[in-house]
Amino acid sequence: MTSSQRRLFPDFILGPLKGVAATLLSLGIGSALLATSEPARADTWPAKPIKLVVPYPPGGAADAVARLYAEKLGESLKQPVLVENKAGAGTAIAAEFVANAPADGYTLSLVPTGQLTVLPHIAKNLRFDPLNSFAPISLLASTAVVIAANPTVPAGNVKELVALVKAKPGKLSYSSSGSGTIIHLAGENFRLSTGTDILHVPFKGSAPAVTALLGGEVDLAFDTLTVLAPQIKAGKVKGIAIASKKRSPLLPGVPTVAEAGYPDYDVVSWFGLAAPAGTPDAVVKRLNAEVQVIAAQPAAQEKLAAQGLEAWPSTPTQFAERIRSDHAKYGRIVKASGATFD
Amino acid sequence: MELLSQLSQGFAAALSFGNIAYCLVGVTLGTLIGVLPGIGPVATIAMLLPATYGLPPLSALIMLAGIYYGAQYGGSTSAILVNLPGESSSVVTCLDGHAMARQGRAGAALGIAALGSFFAGSVATLIIAVLAAPLAELALKFGPAEYFSLMVLGLVAAVVLANGSLIKAIAMIILGLLLGLVGTDVNSGVERFTFGIPELSDGFGFVVVSMGLFGIAEIIYNLEKGEKRDFFATSVGGIWPSRDDFRQSWKPVLRGTTLGSILGVLPGGGAILSSFAAYTLEKRLAKDSSRFGKGAIEGVAAPEAANNAGAQTSFIPLLTLGIPPNAVMALMVGAMMIHGIVPGPQVMTERPELFWGLIASMWIGNALLVLLNLPLIGIWIRLLKVPYRLLYPAILLFCCVGVYSVNQSALEVAFTVGFGLLGYLFIKLDCEPAPLLLGFVLGPLMEENLRRALLLARGDATVFFTRPLSLGLLVATLLLVLILVLPKVRQTREVAFQED
Question: What ipTM goes with this model?
Answer without folding.
Answer: 0.81
